[in-house]
Write a structure and sequence with these properties.
Blueprint: H1 3-22, H2 24-27, E1 31-36, H3 44-60, E2 65-70, H4 81-87, E3 92-96, H5 119-131, E4 143-148, E5 154-157, E6 172-175, H6 178-186, E7 190-193, H7 199-204, E8 210-213, H8 215-220, E9 229-232, E10 240-244, H9 246-251, H10 254-263, H11 265-290, E11 294-297, H12 300-309, H13 311-323, H14 328-341
Parallel strand pairs: 1-2, 1-3, 6-7, 6-8, 9-11
Antiparallel strand pairs: 3-10, 4-10, 5-8, 5-9
Helix pairs in contact: 3-11, 5-11, 5-14
Length: 345
């Protein structure tokens, strides 16, 4: 082979190598992950929390990851979301722990009545409890991305205003958890368990009289259309989670995993969900008042009655943990400590 031919082939080879290594972004196909949301696409959680979070993930991974949302329970019912992540029906799910009663006993510590003053504080508390290992192996079936809390629940009624504890006597009230159900019973009400998406028709038909629900879900599910009286109780709320299927997690490259870790946890739960949700609650009550609904604010004395009457829930929770052989007292003490640490009263 002549000298000029050798130079020609070397040049061609070099050009090919340069091309291959200069275009890896175009050679790699983006990973598309399926995210299941059981609430309608227009709900606050989908619009204000999940979509911005997805945009951050996609931007920080330089387009390596795309996330498609399946809203309105397209992939499964509200109570199936955690198991869907564990089984891989979806790559990512979010849901409510109370829809899996008994599965996450220690994590329910932050659901105790009046435990947290806001979504932001509650979200920081529950995430830090998890990060410190206080929930043991409760979430081992998935790659847990975030634990967080919605705004505290208020009492929304169809026909009967609740201005004091005694007004709840005989009322059929939807309960989001067994814990709140026990309190409703103590207060003379009749607890009725059902997923949030079923509440609208139940209120409209008079199957239930009232509901404990956070104000954002009240708007997202249009339950404001079938309620008129809103009692500002702030009785804490149930924990929400974001979870990823373990096999999906293991399939991601370390740099992509790093992005998920940095943008999940307390960032997603408190900095994104908590702060935005707490601000949005103020707007909800302005809208309700402007539409002619009655907003009831309890007096400090009446609030103390509600708080004092909730003590049996704490006693029952501790006994339940002790019966299961779980460190309930230790977890409760740390929860109180964290509440002070992150700005709760």
């Amino acid at each position: 082979m002549g000298k000029w031919q050798s130079k020609f082939y070397v040049g061609i080879f070099s050009a090919v190598i340069l091309f291959v290594f200069s275009v890896p972004v175009f050679a790699d196909k983006p990973i598309t992950l399926r995210l299941s949301s059981f609430l309608p696409s227009g709900h606050f959680m989908n619009v204000k929390i999940i979509k911005p979070w997805i945009a951050d993930i996609e931007k920080r991974t330089n387009g390596k990851v795309k996330i498609k949302v399946y809203a309105g329970g397209a992939l499964g019912k509200p109570q199936e979301q955690y198991d869907m992540a564990a089984r891989g029906v979806a790559d990512i799910t979010w849901g409510i722990l109370a829809y899996s009663p008994g599965k996450f006993p220690l994590a329910t510590v932050v659901e105790l009545p009046f435990m947290s003053p806001s979504a932001e504080v509650g979200s920081r508390m529950v995430q830090r409890l998890y990060d410190k290992g206080y929930f043991g192996d409760e979430f081992d079936e998935v790659k847990l991305l975030t634990l967080a809390m919605p705004p505290n629940m208020d009492l929304h009624s169809r026909k009967h205003p609740v201005k004091k504890l005694e007004d709840m006597k005989g009322m059929k009230i939807r309960t989001p958890s067994a814990m709140i159900g026990g309190l409703i019973k103590n207060w003379g009400g009749v607890p009725v368990a059902m997923p949030a998406p079923d509440v609208y028709m139940s209120l409209e038909r008079g199957v239930i009289d009232s509901i404990f629900l956070d104000p954002l879900t009240l708007m997202g599910l249009k339950i404001y259309e079938v309620t008129k009286y809103h009692t500002r109780v702030g009785i804490s709320t149930t924990v929400l989670f974001f979870a990823m299927n373990k096999k999906t997690w293991d399939s991601l490259s370390p740099d992509v995993q790093k992005v998920f870790d940095e943008l999940s946890g307390e960032h997603l739960g408190a900095d994104l969900n908590g702060k935005i949700a707490d601000r949005a609650v103020l707007g909800v009550y302005k809208k309700l008042a402007a539409s002619g609904d009655t907003i009831i604010t309890l007096s400090p004395q009446e609030m103390e009655k509600w708080k004092a009457s909730s003590q049996p829930a704490f006693d029952a929770w501790l006994k339940s943990m002790e019966k299961k052989g779980l460190p309930g007292k230790k977890v409760l003490d740390e929860t109180y400590r964290l509440r002070k640490e992150v700005g709760g009263s």
